[in-house]
Amino acid sequence: MRIIACVKAAPEDADIGVNPDRSLDFSRAQTKIGSYDLNAVEAARQVADQTGGEVVGLSVGGEALANSKLRKDVLSRGLDSLTVVAGEPDADSFQTASALADALGHLGDYNLVLLGAGSSDRYAQQVGNQLGALLGLPTLNNVNRIAVEGNTARVERLLEDAVQVVEVTLPAVLSVTPAISTPRIAGMKDILAAGRKPVTEVVATMPGASTQVVSVLAPEQVDRKRTVVEGDPAEVAQQLAQFLKKL
Length: 247
Known about the structure:
Layout: E1 2-7, E2 9-11, E3 17-18, E4 24-25, E5 31-33, H1 35-51, E6 54-60, H2 68-75, E7 81-86, H3 93-107, E8 112-115, H4 127-135, E9 139-149, E10 152-158, E11 163-169, E12 172-176, H5 188-194, E13 199-203, H6 233-245
Parallel strand pairs: 1-6, 1-8, 6-7, 7-13, 8-12, 9-12
Antiparallel strand pairs: 2-5, 3-4, 9-10, 10-11
């Protein structure tokens, strides 16, 4: 069983500042692996441990992962190896999916490709679906449980008001929710071992941008009105509804 866990390095949310013109200031933002991606890594590790397989990390935008500390961090979370793909780190979802699809051709056979619900910066939630379409493989998102038996994966998907159970033939591309796993905290032994794990750099084809970012601005800051709603539950609900209608 060979599992590919896709990850992305992105700026730390808490370090991003806001300039007076509402533009974002990334000058102090440290780069980290997105939390949603770590859910995918942990889920991949658990499936690999159950099936006696290996987990290969795959990331587009290799420049960010040139940082040895960042590489060790993600390798210490359960990956057996890491492949970094040269490319634009701020690529749109189709560019990223295309580069991942091309890079997978360099990795040989695999049984599962796992992605997080979305990247921690863009959170477009499109890369997994687009990657599956490009590869021509069974593709599912909102996955919160995976059980592999032979050449089949039994998958639970979280829908709006139900849990759907689907069986898919491998290989397949699955985008997992945070409910699927709790990312492990690496110990000193894991961190030391990460430095000896193989890291491969590959070049993949990336098409031109399919979208254009016009602007990225923080929301306008407004003073809180400190409106207090009092009364019994029915009265409070009615007052709250009237207040929301005025917004």
